Amino acid sequence: MSDRAVQLDEQHFRILSENAAAFGTTPELYLQSLIDAHSRTFDEILSPIRAGFEQMSDEEIDGLFDQARKAARPV
Q: How far from 2 is each of 9, 32, 46, 50, CA to CA, in Å?
């Protein structure tokens, strides 16, 4: 991998550093993760979610969503 320099003003670098620290990483790795996330397809993003629902029946999925809906709108 080749290194490239990116010019940021003080304010943008401070924000980048704060966001990186909040995720427990360096500004460089945080910026790479943003670029990687932006370049993934919707199908790639949903892949882990689909895998989690793969073993569930339609009735189980319906029940899960009903439960979440009720929890989000308590009476």
A: 23, 13, 30, 35
Q: What is the mean pLDDT of residues 43-53?
A: 90
Residues 62 and 66: their CA atoms lie apart, in Å, by 6
Coil/strand/helix, residue 14: helix
Separation of alpha carbons 31 and 25, rounded Å: 10
**Cβ–Cβ under 8 Å, residues 27 and 13:** yes
Neighbours of 30 (CB within 10 A): 18
For residue 59, give the DSSP letter.
Answer: H
**Residue 9, number of CB atoms within 10 A of its CB:** 7
pTM of the model: 0.53
